[in-house]
Write a structure and sequence with these properties.
mainly beta, Pnp Oxidase, Chain A, three-stranded antiparallel sheet, 3 helices, FMN binding, NADH-dep_flavin_reductase, oxidoreductase
C-alpha cells in the first residue's frame, strides 16, 4: 500500500470510536526488580461469553513486542475519562509500574486502581495477521469498579481522546 493510501486508510479507521485500555504484564525491570509493565491499546474486543474470551492486537514493530507476545498472563484495565494521564504514560512514557507508584493493587498487581473494569487473562491463542499479532485471552477473573460506576469511559476518535456520553432514551 502506498504511503498516501496507508494514511487515508488509517484516517478512515480512525472514524470508528474505540475505548481505551491498558494491558499489564508481570516483568522484571532493568534493575532486576519485579514489577508490572503497561501498554495502552484501543484494539480491544470481546470475542465470546462462553468460554470468556477477549482479544487485542500488538504491533509487530512495538518496542515491547517480545515481552507482551510472550506473556502467558495479562490484565486488561478499561480506563475512565479521568485516566488520560495513565493512557499517555503507558503509551509514550515510563511503561513500568512499581509498588511505590501506588497505581496497582498489592494483592492483584496487574489491576490498575481507578479503572472502570478489569479482566485477568491467560494467553489462549495468538495469530500474526498482517502487521499485528492478535492475542486472544481467556478471562480468569474480572471486576467492575463500583466507586467509578457513574464515570464516563475514555475514548479515542480521529486521533484524539474523548469520553462516552450516553444518549437520552
Amino acid at each position: 500500500m502506498s504511503d498516501p493510501d496507508r494514511l487515508a486508510y488509517r484516517h478512515a479507521l480512525g472514524t470508528f470510536a474505540t475505548g481505551v485500555a491498558v494491558v499489564t504484564i508481570p516483568v522484571v525491570d532493568h534493575e532486576g526488580h519485579p514489577c508490572v509493565m503497561g501498554l495502552t491499546i484501543n484494539s480491544f474486543a470481546s470475542v465470546s461469553l462462553e468460554p470468556k474470551l477477549i482479544l487485542w492486537s500488538l504491533d509487530l514493530k512495538s518496542e515491547r513486542y517480545a515481552l507482551f507476545a510472550d506473556a502467558q498472563s495479562f490484565g486488561i484495565n478499561i480506563l475512565s475519562a479521568a485516566q488520560r494521564d495513565l493512557s499517555d504514560r503507558f503509551f509514550r512514557e515510563n511503561p513500568y509500574c512499581r509498588e511505590a507508584d501506588d497505581l496497582s493493587f498489592a494483592d492483584e498487581p496487574l489491576r490498575l486502581k481507578a479503572g472502570l473494569a478489569w479482566l485477568k487473562c491467560r494467553q489462549y491463542q495468538t495469530q500474526v495477521l498482517g502487521d499485528h499479532l492478535v492475542i486472544v485471552g481467556e478471562v480468569e477473573a474480572f471486576d467492575q469498579s463500583e466507586t467509578h460506576f457513574g464515570e464516563h469511559g475514555l475514548t479515542y476518535f480521529r486521533g484524539r481522546y474523548g469520553q462516552t456520553h450516553p444518549l437520552p432514551v
